[in-house]
Input
Amino acid sequence: MQDIVQAIAGKLGIGESTVGSAVTVILQLVQEHADSGPAAALIAKLPGAQALLDSAGAPAEASDGGQGGGLGGLMGSVAGALGGQMGGLGALAQLQDAGLDSDQVGPLVGQFLDFAKEHAGDDLVNQVSGSIPGLQDLVG
Output
């Protein structure tokens, strides 16, 4: 995953640490919200993805009792209270908590999905990303 982190950081002018955190959030979203079979298949096809998830431990939203921090945490809490009806708001909040500005989220998610398609194919990536509420909305 370090290759994709470096590539996205270089293309978008975002620090590698922030990109690494955001990629971890995306992988956690895949693991938690996508159908388990396709999610596992995707993670297995992305070099270093499982190791990154293993090293991350608990999802970012759980690290503080699910409350999140700052505005992103507030939006995530509102989205959670509405039972996921707000689509990409929860994902946006988690990515903002990882250190992204709202205008960086779409390009980063798009770059990640492009990378995933190179390794796992369009069909699998589209199936997985389509099953995560609001993820496609973030790309624009």
